[in-house]
Specification:
Length: 241
């Protein structure tokens, strides 16, 4: 259903799933298409929010690593890792929305190359987690190394297969085809706002089980379990190749 109302020199055209608004001088011809600003409807934003919630809170490389980091280093020391995940993903969605995704259409093999590069890096991370030395009793977490920082977590998103899948799906499915630059920022910012508490939940769950990891044998078992889960998270993404 399309309702068109004219008031002075402005025309409002309401049409699902977006709202078009343009203004033109009195007596001028039809407005040019490039002057149209498309605003996402509330229904579209609600559907996108549900997609962002499900994709952010389900198991994956980021959440598995945050669970392990929260358990070993605690929630506070894992904060830079959490912010790096959300910040890096925000920049990824923003870049794809601004045209970076066109590279995948120009070079079809690029996505597969990045997916396999990310898989190789995740295998390396799984090996590092599984082979990490456990802290001796009374040593606390000093022997466990350092948590992943903001820049490292942000850079990891660009080789994370699940992050690429989520970002491309967000832009291609929920971005208006003739959207304004502001829509790209809205989609990226909304995804980041939903993603941060989701990844924080995983880090928080990890911090809750810190007490049971004081025993070195339990810590080794936990590290190996996290490594297996990290490798298992690759299956649904590499299965798409």
């Amino acid at each position: 259903m399309c309702i068109e109302k004219t008031h002075d020199d402005c025309v409002f055209n309401t049409q699902a799933p977006s709202v078009k608004m343009f203004c033109r001088p009195v007596g001028a011809g039809p407005p040019a298409e490039q002057n149209v600003i498309m605003l996402p409807s509330s229904d579209l934003l609600l559907a996108f929010s549900l997609f962002a919630l499900i994709s952010s809170i389900t198991p994956g490389p980021n959440n598995t690593m945050l669970l392990a980091s929260g358990a070993v280093f605690g929630f506070r020391r894992t904060l830079p890792h959490m912010l790096g995940v959300t910040g890096g993903f925000f920049l990824m969605v923003l870049s794809i929305g601004l045209g970076f995704g066109a590279l995948f259409r120009t070079f079809p093999g690029l996505h597969g190359w990045l997916r396999h590069l990310g898989a190789a890096y995740l295998v390396y991370l799984a090996w590092r987690i599984a082979s990490a030395s456990s802290a001796a009793p009374g040593e606390g977490r000093r022997g466990a190394g350092a948590p992943l920082g903001f820049l490292g977590a942000a850079a990891f998103q660009w080789v994370n297969p699940k992050a690429w899948t989520m970002a491309v799906a967000a832009v291609s499915t929920y971005m208006p085809q003739q959207g304004h630059l502001a829509n790209v920022f809205v989609i990226a910012a909304l995804f980041a706002a939903i993603n941060l508490p989701c990844v924080g939940l995983w880090a928080g769950c990890g911090s809750l089980i810190r007490r049971v990891l004081d025993d070195p044998s339990r810590q080794r078992g936990f590290n190996r379990a996290m490594a297996v889960l990290l490798l298992a998270s690759l299956y649904p993404m590499l299965g798409q190749a």
